[in-house]
């Protein structure tokens, strides 16, 4: 392995989640809500790096720009969410509570 400076490990939970070890967070200057990029090499090794805004998914960005332009050009085609679809979605998520900003609980780990 080329220029190995430090080796560390972490464990996968039952939900395939892990905590990024402190030395890795420090080396990559990671903070809460930062995104991590995984680059899988041909030999099976994986490079881990901090995802910067410049590296955001270009396909998603182009798609969102397409939607924005289409809505501006064709505002008459925009339709409100129908009652039937709204009701269907409401039934699917009834009783489900979530907070996307809340940290995972110990039982989720």
From TrEMBL:
GO annotation, biological process: regulation of cell growth
One Pfam family here: PrlF_antitoxin
InterPro entries found in the cross-reference section: PrlF_antitoxin, SpoVT-AbrB_dom, SpoVT-AbrB_sf
Molecular-function GO term, any one: toxin sequestering activity
Positions of the SpoVT-AbrB domain: 10-56
Domain of life: Bacteria
The protein's name: SpoVT-AbrB domain-containing protein
Record organism: Alteromonas halophila
């Amino acid at each position: 392995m080329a220029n190995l400076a430090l080796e560390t490990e972490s464990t996968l939970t039952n939900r395939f989640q892990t905590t990024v070890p402190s030395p890795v967070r420090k080396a990559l200057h990671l903070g809460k809500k930062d995104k991590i990029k995984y680059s899988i090499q041909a030999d099976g090794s994986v490079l881990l790096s901090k995802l910067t805004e410049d590296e955001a998914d270009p396909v998603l960005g182009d798609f969102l720009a397409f939607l924005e332009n289409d809505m501006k050009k064709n505002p008459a085609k925009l339709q409100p969410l129908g009652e039937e679809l709204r009701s269907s979605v409401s039934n699917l998520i009834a009783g489900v509570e979530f907070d996307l900003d809340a940290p995972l609980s110990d039982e989720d780990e």
